[in-house]
Amino acid sequence: MSASSALAREGTGRWDDESIAEYSQRLFDWLTKNFEERAKRIGDERGAPFDLPYKYLAPTDDRKKLRMLEKFKEGSLSSRAAEEHIGETLKEFEAVRKLIAAEEEKLAKTWKSDDANLVVKDGKIYDQRVSAARLGVILDNSPSMTPYLPKLREEIGREFTDAHFVEVDGCRLTHLSDNQWFFTKPVSGINPFTADRHIPRVPQLGETPHSTYIRWTRDAVSALMSSVEKMHCDALYWFCDFEDSTDDDLLRTLGRTMLAKKVTVYVHTLSRRPPELINELAKRSGGEVIRKRI
User: Fold this and answer.
1) Tens-digit pLDDT profile for the chain (294 aa)?
2) Which of 172, 194, 223, 280 shows its CA 20 to 30 Å from the CA of 178?
3) If you compute the radius of gyration of the chain from its CA atoms, what whole number of angstroms results?
4) Is the same domain home to 257 and 139?
């Protein structure tokens, strides 16, 4: 990651052509993958392929366009040309999203649950005993925490092979938002076609989509709430440094939601103590606060 991109990631607002291109492309890549997965699910459900009718984004052998795309990814395209490319790309993604959503709306009405029987599994994560039928794992992937994630994923995956992993940049807990769909994946026994599980609209050029994407990836509150309300996790393992801002009213709201849904909360921090309300939530839920270096 370049210096300008790193500054953008840290939220300084110092956007330049290179960082705008990088984070716009990250949004494009996410949308491409998300739409491909949804199209495959639609095709599997109805027994016939569901093709995505891209035009501007269709594969091409046009050398001029290929060179333009290459320069955009390098951050060397002129500001005007880059803006035009971003605008056209987002317009097409939104048009395709509407087609996907329309087909999902039909399938949501006819979908039938597979009535999966969940089994509570008892296992250990390091020295902590954890019980869960659906374990959600929230990982703080801020720069200071990222080096620890591969080892932690490996440790959790040893005994909880079907754990739902979510990475979020930081642990700012100050306000509720509506980005739960960003952290949602298909779950056995849960209708995958309902609108609340998917992006409601693609941000357009005038909405600074590059910074919008960063806000999605930093939404720790949505990551937590999605695991509970959309993924139906009955236990959360939350790895975080708790160096970001928190709001007590919000923490109480999170706590009430998790306790009402009987979610067991395990909090893993390297050294810093979590806020007292999070300590209390872990204790009241039947979980633990773990302070352990990896």
Assistant:
1) 444 444 454 444 678 889 999 999 999 999 999 999 999 999 999 999 999 999 999 999 999 999 999 999 888 999 999 999 999 999 999 999 999 999 999 999 999 987 667 889 999 999 899 999 999 999 999 999 999 999 999 999 999 999 999 999 999 999 998 899 999 999 988 999 999 999 999 999 999 999 999 999 999 999 999 999 999 999 999 999 999 999 999 999 999 999 999 999 999 999 888 999 999 999 999 999 999 888
2) 280
3) 21
4) yes
Tell me if 153 is assigned to some domain. Answer: yes
What six digits make up the tokens of 153?
């994923």
Domain assignment present for 211: no
Do both 146 and 247 map to the same domain?
A: yes
242 lies in a domain?
yes
CA atoms of 221 and 258, how far apart (whole Å): 12
The whole-angstrom separation of Cα 67 and Cα 142 is 34
State both tokens at 40: 């495959």
What burial class does residue 192 get, using C-beta atoms within 10 Å of its C-beta: 0-12 exposed, 13-18 middle, 19+ buried?
buried
What range does the domain containing 58 cover? 3-110
Same domain, 77 and 157: no
Helix boundaries (H) for the chain: 3-9, 17-46, 63-74, 79-110, 149-159, 209-217, 220-229, 248-260, 276-285
State the Cα–Cα distance between residues 220 and 218, nearest whole angstrom.
6
What's the CA gap between 181 and 226, in Å, rounded? 7
Per-residue tokens: 121: 């599994």
